[in-house]
Amino acid sequence: MEILEKVAYMKGLAEGLGLDTKSKEGKLLTVMMDILDDIALELRDLGDGQGELEEALDAVSDDLSDVESYLYEMDGEYEEDDGEDEDGEVYATTCPNCEEEIFFDESILADGGVECPSCGEKLDFDLEEDCGGCCGACGEAEDGEEGEKD
After folding, report:
1. What is the pLDDT of residue 45?
2. What's the rounded Cα separation, in Å, for the pair 130 and 109?
3. Side-chain half-sphere of 27: how many Cα atoms within 13 Å?
4. Contact of 140 with 133, CB cutoff 8 Å
5. Which residues in 94-116 are b (16+ Cβ under 10 Å) and which e?
6. Using CB atoms within 10 A of its CB, is residue 125 exposed (0-12), middle (13-18) or buried (19+)?
7. Residues 3, 4, 10, CA angle at the centre, nearest 5°?
8. HEC string of the chain?
9. Who's near 123: CB < 8 A, 6+ residues apart?
10. pLDDT confidence of residue 81
11. Cβ-count burial of 137 within 10 angstroms (0-12 exposed, 13-18 middle, 19+ buried)?
12. How far is the C-alpha of 93 from the C-alpha of 104, rounded, in Å?
């Protein structure tokens, strides 16, 4: 038996016993039974709402699973069709303004600077001082000769 049914049964028993609703005790019991009835109705409504939320959550979970599968398939197709591996060197520096770590590749290094995506601070790279031609971005080879330029 559910709570709502039990409260209805209790009300039926009270009526069958001929409870005097004019006495102090009868008034108290009547109010308590009405409160129990209201609580039982609220619990039923909450249970119904929870069931609807569970169904909606299952639907969202299924949709998310479909999106993930689609994205993983797209990612695999892109890598297979691309033909190029992204084995390029990746560099990192820390922004002196916001201390956020910034990652960039050789093309940014060759440009001589990068803008911090967090705070917008312009970071300049001076390749002529410390560059030994290790990456080829500055156009100099390790032995001091001009490197290949694409």
Report:
1. 94
2. 13
3. 3
4. yes
5. ebeeeeeebebeeebbbeeebeb
6. buried
7. 90
8. CCHHHHHHHHHHHHHHCCCCCCCHHHHHHHHHHHHHHHHHHHHHHHHHHHHHHHHHHHHHHHHHHHHHHHHHHHHHHHHHHHCCCCCCCEEEEECCCCCCEEEEEHHHHHHCEEECCCCCCEEECCHHHHCCCCCCCCCECCCCCECCCC
9. 93, 95, 96, 102, 113, 114, 115, 116
10. 47
11. buried
12. 9
| Residue bearing tokens 């601070």 | 121
Along the chain (150 residues), what's the average pLDDT of each consecutive run of 10 residues?
89 88 90 94 94 95 92 68 58 85 79 82 71 55 47
- Cα angle 88, 89, 94 (rounded to 5 degrees) comes to 140
CA distance linking residue 48 with residue 44, whole number of Å: 6
Place of tokens 């990068």: 114
Q: What is the pLDDT of residue 57?
A: 96
Residue 20: both structure tokens together: 């005097």
The residue type found at 74 is: M
Structure tokens at 9: 């049964």
